[in-house]
Amino acid sequence: MNAHRIAAIPGDGIGKEVLPAAQRVLDEAASRHGFALSWCELPWGCAWYAEHGTMMPPDGIDRLGETDAIFLGAVGWPGVPDHVSLWGLLIPIRRAFNQYVNLRPARLLPGLASPLRECGRFDVAIVRENTEGEYSEVGGRFATPAGDVAVQESIFTRRGCERVLRYAFDLARARGGRLVSATKSNGLVHTMPFWDEVTAEVANGHPDVEWRRMHVDALAARFITHPEDLDVVVGSNLFGDILSDVAAAVSGSLGVAPSANLDPTGENPSMFEPVHGSAPDIAGRGVANPIAQIWCGAMMLEHLGHPAAAADVLAAIERVTAEPALHTRDLGGTASTEEATSAVIAALPAR
Ligand code: NAI
Ligand code: MG
């Protein structure tokens, strides 16, 4: 049997609850489709940090490099500053493996209510640049006679912009043929005009995609006022990060929002993790919504070349969300993580 080697990093908080839940679903879907997932369990995160002073061992990246994909829960826990946990695990993985696309689909699943009073069709794919941009280490803090100053530089390279924009335009071509690029060229006068220029160049190679640029503030408002207008939205690291949380909120809950960190060249393993964090406020109680993590798993199966198994997992998710009795608390229901997970497994189409 063909077994894929998958690194499983539950991380912290509800990551330790939703990751094993999703593993159960994926194992079941895989066995029905005649393949297997060989999990390599890695207990890295804030507990590891407390013991070793680092978020992962020094050979962590090398070990991950030997796998076919990385399945991650969430990292971050009170007591470890968030920038330490993020820059000690997630960001090194994204950068070492050139996962330059952060793909975050969001749609209104059957049975879920958007907090928007009027939300018709909502089905977007946010493509976020994942390796450079505003999230850079260049800068510092300075004491000046006028007071303390903090400086944070953004790095936009032509190669970095071009490759993520090309991915987004290709995706738009494969979906509804429409794309919006997030900009802010009125306020950020160096990086954003550059981003816009590269967008226009890439757009020239995609005459079949109808596209426009929008200032990110107006675009954020658009998600609320006319969510049905949007299809593929591409943005820099910071803009994509913020817009995808807005999109997750529109679709009902962070608990159903998946994301994939992709190296589209296939040279390195890609990483699949929910948009949400470790949710310390509900961790350890067995009430976290496992849907986001399970949907991430479906994206991973698709990436590993099993679209039929991925489609089955998505179909099972939709059957469960359609049933209010199976909703977890974040969706207004009373189901536990375990109940929702077992329901997804039970809803997998028979093979
Ligand atoms: P969060 O996403 O952990 O929680 C925000 C709110 O959403 C909380 O009220 C939480 O209970 C709820 N929530 C999130 N996921 C849920 C789920 N699956 N089911 C039900 N409710 C859910 O964001 P927060 O509180 O800002 O961050 C907590 C920690 O997580 C921090 O240490 C942060 O740095 C880290 N974090 C890690 C991320 C990652 O690993 N990629 C992403 C975001 C935050
Ligand atoms: Mg975010």
N-to-C terminal Cα separation, in Å?
A: 17 Å
How many E-type strands?
Answer: 12
CATH class of the largest domain: Alpha Beta
Fraction of residues in helix: 25-40%
CATH topology of the largest domain: Isopropylmalate Dehydrogenase
Spell the H/E element sequence.
EHEHHEHEEEEHEHEHEHEEHHH
Count of DSSP H/I helices: 11
Keywords: Manganese, Metal-binding, NAD, Oxidoreductase
Organism: Actinoallomurus bryophytorum
Family: Belongs to the isocitrate and isopropylmalate dehydrogenases family.
EC number: 1.1.1.83
Question: How would you describe what is shown here?
Answer:
This protein is α/β, with parallel strands linked by helices and 351 residues long. It folds into two domains: 1-99 and 259-351, Isopropylmalate Dehydrogenase (3-Layer(aba) Sandwich), CATH 3.40.718; 114-251, Isopropylmalate Dehydrogenase. Helix content is 40%, strand content 21%. The protein is built from eleven helices and twelve strands. The strands form two sheets. The chain has a ten-stranded mixed beta sheet, with helices on both faces. The protein has a two-stranded antiparallel sheet with strand order 6-7. Strand 8, helix 6 (191-204) and strand 9 form a beta-alpha-beta unit. Helix 1 packs parallel to helix 11 (337-346), helix 5 packs across helix 6 and helix 10 packs across helix 11. It is globular, with a radius of gyration of 20 Å. The mean pLDDT is 95. 1,4-dihydronicotinamide adenine dinucleotide binds at residues 14, 18, 74-76, 82, 90, 254-255, 273, 276-282, 288-289, 292, 330. Residues 14, 18, 74-76, 82, 90, 254-255, 273, 276-282, 288-289, 292, 330 line the site of 1,4-dihydronicotinamide adenine dinucleotide.
